[in-house]
Amino acid sequence: MGSLQHCCCQLPKMGDTWAQLPWPGPPHSALLLALLLLATGVMHSDAGTSCPVLCTCHNQVVDCSSQRLFSVPPDLPMDTRNLSLAHNRIAAVPPGYLTCYMELRVLDLRNNSLLELPQGLFLHAKRLAHLDLSYNNLSHVPADMFREAHGLVHIDLSHNPWLRRVHPQAFQGLVHLRDLDLSYGGLAFLSLEALEGLPGLVTLQIGGNPWVCGCTMEPLLKWLRNRIQRCTADSQLAECRGPPEVEGAPLFSLTEESFKACHLTLTLDDYLFIAFVGFVVSIASVATNFLLGITANCCHRWSKASEEEEI
Fold this sequence. Notes:
disulfide bond, 5 helices, single chain, voltage-gated potassium channel activity
């Protein structure tokens, strides 16, 4: 297995392949045609049909699933359209790993040990449509994680129990995204900005997360309610874990009335009343302290006088 650092995009040169073939003498048209076909076959074999060890390759589908791999296989066929690395023990993907595979449409990395993905991994994956990152250990989705992968239609980030943060610009530019699965993670909050730039979103799965349904969640819930007819969501599975007064309540059962306290505003009269109460409380406190001081002083004098009389 070769090194991942070499450029997998280089094709054999025609001259190099031609030079390795025996030259029998004066050229004949039939012989030249046969040699040309042979050279073309050699080039195609070197460039497009090499299959990594422990993987199976057929019709542009490379299946390396369930092989107990600890690292991604190098030197995939360059015309790979469907790559499955599912059910392995892969903990990291090298930067630039997908650079050479311009035809890639489906990437399955579910059920591995991924903690994060390198920046710019999908920079050249312009035709990637389906991405499965479920059942991993991702902790956050950074900004521009899917940069340049504008063809993405389906993203599965479910069952990442340590996933606690999705950057507001994580899905920026994914105008064709239809299905997004963020279920069964560790999300307590999701920015509205992360979703409102997805005009084609049809299915959104967010159940199984420990949502904190405080004032910061109101914009997202209002947006979801307005899109509920066009966006299918797992409303029965999405529940609030806090604050205590709404714990266990279905996320989509919260209405504007539930967030009424978030919009309470004080008038000038309210401020004046609060200032007056504060002033009265401070005066009362001073008076109380004064009376306590006088009482303590009187008790001290009475106690001293009693001691002198006994003597």
